């Protein structure tokens, strides 16, 4: 598979903490790659480097072959990477459609075209009936879907999704899984960070596991989660020994 995104030997240090160490992995065209690992493993730092919020200390990050490491967030958005945040913060007094239009303006200044695109997106999200509701009056889960829609309105080739089902009920999580699969069916490649294993297992074609900033495993999710190094990272050495 041709990669859309390639990280090679990427590292980032914050003072004494090596948040990401020599990470090399790629996302294929049309692939859903899960980035997993225990708390503090470096997942968000890796996201922030890809999205231009942090400059890597070393290494290259290529989008369709072009190095984007160290570029500004808006340049990376323009290049075709969209992202959702762990905490969704829509403009509370704007409606669903108006919030979606904000995403669209990253690509297109024409208000009419943008409104049409936002209306379509509200339907894609299953929120057509709520399109004129102010974001302040939405449930937390609807705000998450709105966050996803806003990122999609920037017309990304690659979407970075950070913990999209945090705090969701099981049925909401199931709805989000369906929605993410619909996003991929539009030809968008996806890199997803998620703690809910059921979601990672049902969405990811492959997973990459980070622990203390280092890549400790990668491959199909079912194979990777049973590897001793991964079990040790999540549950500790004792758990691995007790299974031996
Ligand atoms: N801006 C920062 N300044 C200093 N240290 C940071 C900063 N951002 C992250 N770190 C540290 O870098 C390490 C990796 O953090 P990061 O947030 O990337 O992990 P994570 O895998 O996303 O964790 P979680 O699953 O809890 O969100 C942690 O030790 C964290 O405390």
UniProtKB/TrEMBL annotation:
Keyword terms, alphabetized: ATP-binding, Nucleotide-binding, Transport
One of the record's GO cellular component terms: plasma membrane
GO process terms (BP): D-alanine transmembrane transport; L-alanine transport; L-isoleucine import across plasma membrane; L-valine import across plasma membrane
GO MF assignments: ATP binding; ATP hydrolysis activity; L-isoleucine transmembrane transporter activity; L-phenylalanine transmembrane transporter activity; L-valine transmembrane transporter activity
Protein's UniProt keywords contain ATP-binding: yes
Pfam family, one: BCA_ABC_TP_C
InterPro entries xref list: AAA+_ATPase, ABC_AA/LPS_Transport, ABC_transporter-like_ATP-bd, BCA_ABC_TP_C, P-loop_NTPase
Domain of life: Bacteria
Keyword Transport: yes
Domain ABC transporter: 5-237
Name of this chain's protein: ABC transporter ATP-binding protein
Organism of origin: Metarhizobium album
Lineage: Bacteria, Pseudomonadati, Pseudomonadota, Alphaproteobacteria, Hyphomicrobiales
């Amino acid at each position: 598979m041709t990669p859309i995104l390639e990280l090679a030997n990427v590292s980032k240090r914050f003072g004494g903490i090596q948040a990401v160490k020599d990470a090399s992995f790629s996302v294929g065209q049309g692939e859903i790659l899960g980035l997993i690992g225990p708390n503090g493993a470096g997942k968000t730092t890796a996201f922030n480097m890809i999205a231009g919020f942090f400059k890597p200390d070393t290494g290259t990050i290529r989008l369709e072959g072009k190095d984007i490491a160290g570029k500004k967030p808006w340049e990376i958005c323009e290049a075709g990477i969209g992202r959702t945040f762990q905490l969704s913060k829509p403009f509370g007094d704007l409606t669903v459609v108006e919030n979606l239009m904000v995403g669209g303006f990253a690509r297109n200044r024409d208000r009419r075209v943008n409104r049409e695109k936002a209306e379509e997106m509200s339907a894609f999200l299953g929120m057509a009936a709520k399109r004129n509701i102010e974001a302040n009056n939405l449930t937390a889960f609807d705000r998450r879907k709105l966050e996803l829609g806003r990122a999609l309105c920037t017309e990304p080739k690659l979407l970075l999704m950070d913990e999209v089902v945090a705090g969701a009920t099981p049925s909401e999580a199931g709805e989000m899984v369906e929605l993410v699969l619909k996003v991929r069916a539009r030809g968008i490649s996806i890199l997803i960070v998620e703690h809910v294993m059921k979601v990672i297992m049902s969405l990811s074609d492959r997973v990459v596991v980070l622990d203390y900033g280092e890549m400790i495993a990668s491959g199909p999710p079912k194979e990777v989660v049973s590897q001793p190094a991964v079990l040790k990272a999540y549950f500790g050495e004792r758990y691995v020994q007790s299974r031996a």
